[in-house]
Amino acid sequence: MTRRALVTGATAGIGNAFARELAKRGVDLVIVARTTERLETLAAELRSKHQVEVDVVTADLSTAAGVQAASNALTDTTRPVDLLVNNAGASLAGWFGTTDMADEDRQLDLLVRAPMHLMDAAIKSMAGRGGGQIINVSSVAAFTPRGVYSAHKAWLLNLSQWADIHYDDVNISVQALCPGFVRTEFHERGEMDVSDVPRWMWLKADYVVKTSLRDLERDKTVSIPSMRYKALAGLAQHLPRTLVTRVAKRGR
Ligand SMILES: NC(=O)c1ccc[n+]([C@@H]2O[C@H](COP(=O)([O-])OP(=O)(O)OC[C@H]3O[C@@H](n4cnc5c(N)ncnc54)[C@H](OP(=O)(O)O)[C@@H]3O)[C@@H](O)[C@H]2O)c1
After folding, report:
1. Assigned fold of 4-247
2. How far is the CA of 2 from the centre of ligand 1 (A)?
3. What is the spatial distance between Cα 249 and Cα 124, in angstroms, rounded to a whole number?
4. Ligand 1 touching residue 225 (CB < 6 A)
């Protein structure tokens, strides 16, 4: 049973939906993001609505200090965390090869280095306590070559699949959550034009979260919310690479 969860990127979108759903289920929380005011407002709302404990950690996860602050919460033996949701993320505007490398480094730190360090802290802490659960928010973009973002998400998917098998004997489950398009602040923040994405391709964040938590209960390593995206991800793995790349050419 989950008693305390740490959710990164809880101020908006999918992370916010995770925090709300877990609090509704009576789970105490540690919520992490950069914007203190939004974190505090959410914490106050969840405490009063669901009578759960909510700790706030303001941290920029593209920095070593930010990752350390979140790691400290994961290794605090007085307030053990049973579920880590590695969710915080963003997309960089522009194609790799035209972008600033300092920005690319920050993206790599946020999408790869931060979840790697937080997973490490969680596994070391959970292994000594009889187990725990980790959800790594990847993307369906992990199944297709779509530039740096999809490469980062493929890395997270791959590591999650290995870790779920490897740490099974110490009772740690690791899930890669791979959503398609979800209505959040993500596309606007990344200056992406999504006006031509058809309506049927959009998912709601709370549906994504409920699917992920249901799949976690069923011990599914890869969670792909909705039949349509399961089919697309399956196709992407079996069609010739050149064709998939051509279809995905717009991605970055
Ligand atoms: N939306 C989609 O279509 C979609 C599809 C597949 C996968 N995903 C993945 O889902 C995850 C969540 O995205 P979302 O769609 O929910 O995006 P969102 O609505 O933009 O929310 C992103 C969250 O991450 C936090 N964040 C961003 N940069 C951060 C940093 N440097 N340090 C700490 N926190 C940071 C933001 O909070 P602050 O600004 O307060 O820091 C916010 O809480 C991401 O990993 C994304 O790649 C999204």
Report:
1. Rossmann fold (3.40.50)
2. 23
3. 40
4. no
Query: What residue ranges do the domains of the chain occupy?
Result: 4-247
169 C-alpha to center of ligand 1: Å? 32
Answer for the pair 70, 61: CB distance below 8 angstroms, yes or no: yes
Residue 146 has pLDDT above 70, yes or no: yes
Report the pLDDT value the prediction gives residue 247, as an integer from 0 to 100: 65
Contact yes or no for 142/157 (Cβ under 8 A): yes
Q: Does the beta carbon of 184 lie inside 6 Å of ligand 1?
A: yes
Answer whether 15 contacts ligand 1 (Cβ < 6 A).
yes
Query: Ligand 1: which of 20, 32, 34 to mutate, judged by most atoms within 8 Å of the beta carbon?
Result: 34
168: nearest Cα among 214, 212, 105, 126: 126
17-74 residue pLDDT tens: 999 999 999 999 999 999 999 999 999 999 999 999 999 999 999 999 999 999 999 9
Catalytic residue check, 229: no
Residue that has been written with the tokens 């979800």 in this structure: 182
